[in-house]
C-alpha cells in the first residue's frame, strides 16, 4: 500500500494565501506546518497583498445591551462590516457572534489599518496628569501586541489631552 499523496509546501502556501482570515484561523489546527505557516510574518504579508482592499469598515459601538455583559461593565463592541452591505442596508443589526468585545473602562479604539485596531489605554487622573499607553489589536485572530511604554500627559475632564494617530508605512513596512 502506497502512502497518500501530499501537496508541496509551495502549493499549500499558494492556496492558503488566497483564503479569508477566518478560515486561516481555523486551519491553524490542521497540523504543525500549517500553524507555523499561517503564523509566519512573511505569509501574513503575502496574504495582506492578496486580500481585497477597503471592502470592510470597523463598526464600533458603546453602551451595548445584552452582549453577554453580566457585570454591567463599560464595553466597546467592534465588528467588521462590508461597505457594499452597509450602503445597501444603512440600518444594521449586528450578529453577536461577529462581535469582538473590549473591556473599555480605560480603553479607546482609535483607528483601524489592515485589520489591526489601534487601542489607547489610560489610567485615572492624578493632579492633572494621566499615563497613556497604546497597542495594536487583531480582533479576527484575537491577538494583541505588547503594551507600549507609558507616556505621562496633561489631562482635561478625565481624558488625556493629547492627539494620537496610526497608520501603515509602506516604505518601512511598519505600523506607526
From TrEMBL:
Gene3D superfamilies: 1.20.1280.50. Pfam families: F-box. Residues 1-46 form the F-box domain. Coiled coil: none annotated. Transmembrane segments: none annotated. This is F-box/kelch-repeat protein. It comes from Trifolium medium. The lineage of its organism: Eukaryota, Viridiplantae, Streptophyta, Embryophyta, Tracheophyta.
Amino acid at each position: 500500500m502506497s502512502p497518500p499523496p501530499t501537496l508541496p509546501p509551495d502549493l499549500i502556501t499558494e492556496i492558503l494565501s488566497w483564503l479569508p482570515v477566518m478560515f486561516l484561523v481555523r486551519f491553524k489546527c490542521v497540523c504543525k506546518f500549517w500553524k507555523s505557516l499561517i503564523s509566519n510574518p512573511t505569509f501574513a504579508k503575502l496574504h495582506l497583498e492578496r486580500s481585497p482592499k477597503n471592502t470592510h469598515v470597523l463598526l464600533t459601538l458603546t453602551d451595548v445591551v445584552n452582549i453577554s455583559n453580566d457585570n454591567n461593565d463599560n464595553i466597546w463592541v467592534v465588528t467588521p462590516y462590508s461597505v457594499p452591505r452597509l450602503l445597501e442596508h444603512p440600518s444594521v443589526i449586528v450578529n453577536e457572534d461577529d462581535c469582538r468585545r473590549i473591556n473599555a473602562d480605560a480603553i479607546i479604539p482609535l483607528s483601524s489599518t489592515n485589520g489591526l485596531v489601534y487601542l489607547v489605554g489610560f489610567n485615572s487622573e492624578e493632579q492633572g496628569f494621566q499615563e497613556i499607553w497604546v497597542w495594536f489589536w487583531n480582533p479576527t485572530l484575537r491577538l494583541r501586541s505588547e503594551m507600549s511604554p507609558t507616556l505621562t500627559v496633561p489631562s482635561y475632564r478625565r481624558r488625556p489631552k493629547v492627539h494620537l494617530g496610526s497608520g501603515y508605512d509602506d516604505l518601512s513596512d511598519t505600523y506607526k
